[in-house]
Design brief:
- This is Fibronectin type III domain-containing protein.
- One of its GO terms (molecular function) is hydrolase activity, acting on glycosyl bonds.
- Keywords: Carbohydrate metabolism, Glycosidase, Hydrolase, Polysaccharide degradation.
- The strands form two sheets. Strands 4-3-6-7 form a four-stranded antiparallel sheet, with no helix packed on it. It has a three-stranded antiparallel sheet with strand order 1-2-5, with no helix packed on it.
- The chain is about 0% helix and about 35% strand.
- It has no helices and seven strands.
- The protein has a domain of about 80 residues: Immunoglobulin-like, CATH 2.60.40.10.
- About 20% of the residues are buried.
- With about 130 residues, it is mostly beta strands.
Amino acid sequence: MLLTVSCRWGGQDDADGERPPGAPTGVTAQAGSATSVHVMWNRTAPAGSEVTGYEVYRGHIKVEQVPASTHMVDVTRLRPATTYVFTVRARDADGRLGPPSREARATTPAAARADTAPPTTPGDLGGR
């Protein structure tokens, strides 16, 4: 029994002679709040196939899927004071995924404590 496996991330041509899309460039991640991160990237240059969408990953988990016209997402439901690593992959019309982008890291800030103290009474009120 012979088993052959290929991920085709090395830029090799597919059986029909077309290459999967390239990796998105310029990926950045910035905390938007204690529970969200804003991820942005540059449009992928065609590598023989048209990009129809992008997939955003937190670690190895796909967290967002967007059309090719979108180059930014807000990833929500994150934990405060935690560092996250994001990558982006392009998908073409045939469903082929390109290689992952370079990693972008972001750390969410600590959650702000709830303000439960009542306001103070204004002092020395005088009219004119």
